[in-house]
Amino acid sequence: MTSDILTLIQSGMPRFSKGQKLIANYILSSYDKAAFMTASKLGKTVNVSESTVVRFAVELGYDGYPAMQKALQEMIRNKLTSVQRIEVANNRFGNHEILSMVLQSDIEKIRSTMEEIDKSAFQNAVDDILKARNIYILGVRSSASIATFLSFYFNLMFDNVKHIHTSSNAEMFEQMVRISEEDVVIGISFPRYSSRTVKAMKFAYDRGATVIALTDSRSAPIAQNATHTLIAMSDMVSLVDSLVAPLSVVNALIVACSYKKEAEISATFSDLETIWDEYGVYEKVDDEG
Predict the structure, then answer these.
(1) How many CB atoms lie within 10 A of CB 289?
(2) What pTM, to 2 d.p., does this model score?
């Protein structure tokens, strides 16, 4: 469905039943909380049955409550402030055991990613990375950790990796000024989407570079200027972002590229092992205890 869910609710208000209007009014006034409630909890909150909540979702044109809930979550994820995120998380977790809930949520995000990701787009991305003149890697704010992780391993595998470190738009474009159609740019962005990453991706796309977007939706801002889009599910966990699934996709990229460059990489890592051992990069573990 392409219409904003709040617009759908507002336009359908005249035809809703009394119970459905209670649901509608609550969502319109507290959509940041409703988006993370189960159908049962939403029903209890507005004093209607769970089945009334499910019928309300169908009345809006969704297949069921999970589809309506997903639409709500996608609408708000890029809009919530950090303070709102904390409030949503407190309502979401309640008195439940947080560790188990967060781990279970991450498991579900990886499972959803397996279902959503385009495997042909993934393979095409790997092929383009392997033949690129230069590989630019970009991710800022919470996505910076994933970009750094990818850059670390790609730098061990390739001699043409450029990790874009920047604190301003000007610095970003200065590092990308020589980009061309022979290059690949890997951009990583998840809600709340960074405007700097979006601008850099468009710049690269306009220069003819192959643009690989790692994000959570095909409608995400950086996907609009991408040659290949790799979908990985993320989630809000209080004031932080859960990026377990995106990191898993990055792991897959690294492994897929290393598989294609097996002979070359084996020689490189053989040299690295000698260097690491000579300079004591890693602690030696005594197996004899």
Answers:
(1) 4
(2) 0.70
Token pair of 100 as six digits: 């188990």
228's tokens: 């290949």
In angstroms, how far is the first alpha carbon of the chain from the final one? 61
Q: Which helix (H) or strand (E) holds 101?
A: helix 98-116
Closest among 217, 232, 236, 205 to 90, alpha carbons compared: 236
Q: What is the pLDDT, as a whole number, of residue 112? A: 83
Confidence of residue 90 (pLDDT cuts 50, 70, 90): low
The DSSP secondary structure of 162-214, one letter per residue, reads EE---SSHHHHHHHTTT--TT-EEEEE--SSPPHHHHHHHHHHHHTT-EEEEE
Residue 144 pLDDT more than 80? yes
Can you tell me the distance from the alpha carbon of 225 to that of 135, in angstroms, rounded to the nearest whole number?
A: 17
